[in-house]
Design goal:
There is one protein chain. The protein is an alpha/beta fold. It has one domain: Rossmann fold. Helix content is 47%, strand content 11%. A 5-stranded parallel sheet has the order 2-1-3-4-5, sandwiched between helices. The longest helix is centred in the middle third of the chain and has 18 residues.
Length: 208
Amino acid sequence: MLLNNNDVVLFQGDSITDWGRNREDGASLGVGYSLMVASRVGHLYPEKNITFLNRGIGGNRTIDLQKRWDKDCLELKPNVLSIMIGINDTWRRFDNNENTPVEQYEARYRDLLQRATDKLDVKLVMMEPFVLPVPEDRKLWRADLDPKIHVVRELAREFGAVLVPLDGLFAEASTKADPAFWTPDGVHPSPAGHGLIAEAWLKAVGAI
């Protein structure tokens, strides 16, 4: 299993990770997949004494993580760094005409990973951004998001990270129940969607 005794696990990302956390409380995990993972690991492996931290912020893109990386990552000295970032790099193109070309996304993401691995003895968990066709116009996002998902996969290989293939997992789940069951707006997960993410993360790191 990827998780060792006394590890500090840091979840980083956007609103999907943020998900109701109290930003005034450094120990707050929110009420989404981060809390679900911490809860499951805590009761399965209490002897490991693992600490979980959440620094996701809604609306963030890769450029926003770059700006706060020292304070919200490096200074926390995690042993395990879990990142899910990218859907807003796509979304802002469609709602605010702010395009993040795939080359820029790759350079920014690589910078985050390089700074973390240069400064920390850290294991990486990289989670794919994802989108489901709810509403239908989300289908238009695929042309922008798909190359970014491939970037995540390539960077995971390059940096030896554990990959959590969420885009494919949400697509598979949508054959069992309507896409809106998993995420009402194609991006933000329902409780079931957060459960899917948490289970995928736990399986990827070998905790279950």
